[in-house]
């Protein structure tokens, strides 16, 4: 008699994504598991609320042969830690391809959700999650799931160990000295379940000499309310002159966006800030009534690195790259994998500097992809050679580690509403994506169009930061 493997399946999602599509995919994934002989338990409906997570926890038991989290759409990492932190084996994260048409929003953002789960589980629970990427109808996915049911999880890719070119030690040391004494401005707390947005202020000071200046979201809203109408109108006129598509949007939201930009610039100047990391949601759209993406773009175009989702280590990475000569950069999610073309698509909601547009004269400003209110950029990012970098926690050790990758941003229409780059990696793209998840790297990396990798490696050497380079 064949013993059917006991499999716990938890489908996680978030209401701001296309939940009906997510539900269809989750049902198909569960059906495939049953077809392949699994004894499936777990919640039948999408897990989206704290109450849903608590109910799902009843199914996650020690006698399961396999635990699968179906990342039916993006979700923050709260369920990962609440459900799986006590497991003695890595969970399998199953993420789906993006189904929407070219130019539409990310319907699911499933891969990014798996990436965020992977970071949380390794950094905060010591578990190296494994990834299956693709839809239930794909033969390769069927094979991978069948192997997992037999106890053979997808392997964690080997981390490359090649020693690569270094930069001039004196120039790098001077660049690092130039960071010391500078300040990053933080607005608000880390979003719930966004583990990469946590940070160690003492470590940031020790390594880089950077100070942190904090202000609450409500205090920032007070500053927005206090912006004089004359100053708001000057910023609005400047913004419309630089970004004419703003004239097609709701005038009230364009005016409010101008007030946000003015308030952020004023705080930057008063506090002598060199970068900002902003809790950009949920309060900005839900309480203030505007998305700050276009404001962050305006600051970036003016030379101030801006990181959304209050990502401090992301902001530090941007500052480090800038100090080494990378110029303007952008904080991105890895949201899509085209293994046949060796391409990953890098995206975020619309806070890219217009100077980073494939065509800066056509750097359209529009409504936010999920919130459907202004103001956010909607244009493809420029093409050419690129590099990616990210400072992040070093699991099981003190300090930070540094992720590096490189490739070429290739021409294509803006795949997802917001700002997208299609990057053909120098390394194997499938290994890279699996390495992000199993290696516990953040869902955010920093994308740059000037290659400063030799100097960046030297900076890591001088700071005692280990490098993981794909």
UniProtKB/TrEMBL annotation:
Lineage of the organism: Bacteria, Bacillati, Actinomycetota, Actinomycetes, Propionibacteriales
UniProt GO cellular component terms: cytoplasm
Protein name per Swiss-Prot or TrEMBL: L-fucose isomerase-like protein
Coiled-coil region: none
TM stretches of this protein: none
Annotated L-fucose isomerase C-terminal domain residues: 347-469
Domain of life: Bacteria
Cross-referenced InterPro entries: Fuc/Ara_isomerase_C, Fuc_isomerase_C, Fucose_isomerase_N/cen_sf
Keywords assigned by UniProt, alphabetized: Carbohydrate metabolism, Isomerase
GO BP of this protein: fucose metabolic process
Pfam families, sorted: Fucose_iso_C
GO molecular function, one term: L-fucose isomerase activity
């Amino acid at each position: 008699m064949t013993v059917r493997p006991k499999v716990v399946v938890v489908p996680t999602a978030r209401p701001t994504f296309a939940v009906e599509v997510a539900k269809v995919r989750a049902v198909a994934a569960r059906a495939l598991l049953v077809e392949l002989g699994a004894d499936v338990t777990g919640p039948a409906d999408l897990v989206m609320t704290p109450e849903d997570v608590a109910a799902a926890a009843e199914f996650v038991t020690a006698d399961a042969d396999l635990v699968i989290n179906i990342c039916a759409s993006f979700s923050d990492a709260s369920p990962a830690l609440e459900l799986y932190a006590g497991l003695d084996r890595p969970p399998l994260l199953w993420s789906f391809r993006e189904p929407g048409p070219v130019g539409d929003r990310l319907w699911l953002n499933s891969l990014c959700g798996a990436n965020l789960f992977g970071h949380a589980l390794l950094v905060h629970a010591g578990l190296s999650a494994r990834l299956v990427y693709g839809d239930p109808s794909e033969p390769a996915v069927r094979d991978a799931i069948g192997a997992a049911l037999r106890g053979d999880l997808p392997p964690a890719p080997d981390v490359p160990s090649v020693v690569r070119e270094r930069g001039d030690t004196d120039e790098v040391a001077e660049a690092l000295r130039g960071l010391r004494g500078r300040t990053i401005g933080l607005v608000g707390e880390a979003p719930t379940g966004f583990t990469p947005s946590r940070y160690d202020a003492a470590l940031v000071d020790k390594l880089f000499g950077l100070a942190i200046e904090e202000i609450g979201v409500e205090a920032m809203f007070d500053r927005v309310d206090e912006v004089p109408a004359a100053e708001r109108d000057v910023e609005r006129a400047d913004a419309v002159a630089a970004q004419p598509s703003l004239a097609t949007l709701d005038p009230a939201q364009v005016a409010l966006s101008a007030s946000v930009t003015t308030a952020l610039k004023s705080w930057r100047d008063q506090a002598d800030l060199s970068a900002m990391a902003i809790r950009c949601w949920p309060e900005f759209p839900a309480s203030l009534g505007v998305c700050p993406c276009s404001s962050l773009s305006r600051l970036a175009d003016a030379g101030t690195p801006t990181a959304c989702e209050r990502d401090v280590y992301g902001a530090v990475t941007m500052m480090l790259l800038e100090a080494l000569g990378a110029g303007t950069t952008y904080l991105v999610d890895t949201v899509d994998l085209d293994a046949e073309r060796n391409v990953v698509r890098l995206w975020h909601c619309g806070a890219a500097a217009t100077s980073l547009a494939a065509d800066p004269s056509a750097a359209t400003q529009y409504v936010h992809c999920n919130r459907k209110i202004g103001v956010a950029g909607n244009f493809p990012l420029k093409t050419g050679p690129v590099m990616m970098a990210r400072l992040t926690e070093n699991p099981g050790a003190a300090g930070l580690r540094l992720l590096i990758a490189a490739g070429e941003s290739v021409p294509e229409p803006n795949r997802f509403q917001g700002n997208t780059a299609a990057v053909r990696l120098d390394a194997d793209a499938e290994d890279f994506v699996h390495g992000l998840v199993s290696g516990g790297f953040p869902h955010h990396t920093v994308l740059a169009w000037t290659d400063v990798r030799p100097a960046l490696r030297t900076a890591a050497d001088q700071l005692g930061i280990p490098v993981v380079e794909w």
